[in-house]
Design a protein that fits this description.
InterPro entries: MTERF (IPR003690), MTERF_sf (IPR038538). The protein is mainly α. It has helices at residues 13-25, 30-39, 48-60, 72-81, 90-103, 111-118, 127-141, 145-154, 163-176, 181-190, 199-213, 220-223, 232-246, 252-256, 260-266, 270-273, 276-290, 294-304, 308-314, 319-368, 382-397. The protein is built from 21 helices and no strands. The longest helix is centred in the last third of the chain and has 50 residues, at 319-368.
């Protein structure tokens, strides 16, 4: 921590305690104040009246303006996530950011505060070098100012992405996939995150699955941009598999408009949904017998071993028996542990007992049971005993 802030060693204890106590008054728990200090050690070096109080007041009201308008409850959470906000300059950084967002029409009550709460790291970007070029790209797509305001308020991280490395490659991929400018505009309005998703690992596999596996037209995604929100392995593939096995035809919106449990109830697939692992294995053999798509067959066979255990559990007689079997297994395991502990304890005791007997017999045989140490009257000769003991000791030492 001292390496990250060279002025920390010169801070007076009283001033550091004042800053610590003030952070607690903002709603930050005492155990989490240390996290704030570790992330930004320079906070302890700032003057309370000259820096901290003005910055917090700026975040809440900005003097006469109420554009930021962050509540006291949200202030602690905001500084806990990004304590570097305290170190930002009011005249340069805050004024520049507020002027830029206000020029976009985001000058309503607490509008900028909502943006900062969702993505406080936006304050670390330059308005002219990063935020304005992103806004120009959104305008080039065909979004008007009201649409851009909705994107910035709901998904401020889109505004922070690099234009050349992320936004333009994503737009180019969508155009190469067959989407026209109007469809891309509808995409961005419905799901702006599509502009910052990874092309190779997110967009390309989903579009390929839509056309090759689902057999749908690429234009259907225009009216259902939430298609890119669903996970490929967790949501899209299982639903398509169930619909294919039951030979159910439905629109893309009907397939994606509800959660998985409601989806099963809607298409009466609850029984099949509970046997997902079994269906995977059935589909393997169906594909193999039909001789179609051998690559998919080989991919499914690799996953058979992963679903063997869930399949065995699903084939058990009833949930009650599974519960009883689970309890019996736990009981037998506990009894087995007790038996092992008792055996170990018994062996340990027996070993020490045998060692004690051997040691005692050795002492008695070497010292006491010796004719030389017994006097004529049958009593013990102490002098002879000591001599024997010394002789034994010298013998052992030699």
């Amino acid at each position: 921590m001292f390496r990250r802030c060279k002025y920390l060693e010169c801070v007076e204890r009283d001033k550091a305690c004042e800053v610590w106590d003030y952070l607690r008054t903002l709603g930050i728990q005492e155990r989490k104040v240390l996290n704030v200090i570790s992330m930004c050690p320079k906070v302890l070096t700032l003057n309370l009246n000259e820096k901290l109080l003005p910055v917090v007041q700026c975040l809440s009201t900005l003097g006469t303006k109420s554009a930021i308008g962050i509540s006291e409850k949200q202030m602690g959470k905001l500084l806990l996530v990004n304590p570097w906000l305290i170190n930002c300059s009011i005249d340069k950084k805050y004024a520049e950011m507020i002027d830029f967002l206000s020029s976009m029409g985001l000058n309503g009550e607490g509008a900028i505060g909502k943006i900062l709460v969702k993505n406080s790291w936006i304050m670390g970007y330059s308005a002219e070098k990063r935020l304005r070029p992103t806004t120009d790209v959104l305008k080039s797509i065909g979004l008007n100012m009201i649409d851009i305001q909705k994107v910035v308020v709901n998904f401020p991280k889109v505004l922070c992405r690099n234009v050349e490395k992320i936004l333009k490659p994503n737009l180019e991929f969508l155009k190469q996939s067959g989407f026209n400018n109007e469809q891309i505009r509808l995409f961005v309005m419905g799901y702006p995150i599509i502009l910052i998703k990874n092309v190779r690992h997110s967009l390309q596999p989903r579009i390929k699955f839509l056309v090759a596996e689902m057999g749908r037209e690429i234009g259907e995604v225009t009216d259902n941009p939430e298609f890119f929100r669903h996970g490929l392995m967790k949501s899209l593939e299982p639903r398509q598999r169930l619909l294919k096995l039951k030979k159910i035809e439905c629109s893309l919106s009907e397939m994606l408009e509800c959660k998985h449990k409601k989806f099963l109830l809607k298409f009466e697939l609850m029984a099949l949904g509970r046997r997902t692992s079994r269906l995977k294995i059935v589909e393997v053999f169906c594909l193999h017998q039909e001789g179609e798509n051998e690559s998919r067959y080989s991919a499914f066979t690799k996953r058979v071993k992963k679903v063997e255990k869930p399949l065995q559990n699903s084939l058990s007689p009833s949930p009650v028996w599974r519960s009883v079997r689970h309890d019996v297994t736990l009981l037998l395991g506990s009894v087995g542990c007790l038996i092992q502990w008792f055996v170990f304890w018994f062996r340990f005791k027996v070993i020490w007992l045998v060692l004690g007997i051997i040691l005692l017999s050795a002492v008695c045989s070497n010292l006491l049971i010796d004719p030389y140490v017994i006097a004529d009257d049958g009593t013990l000769d102490c002098q002879a005993l000591s001599e024997v003991g010394l002789a034994r000791v010298h013998f052992l030492l030699d």
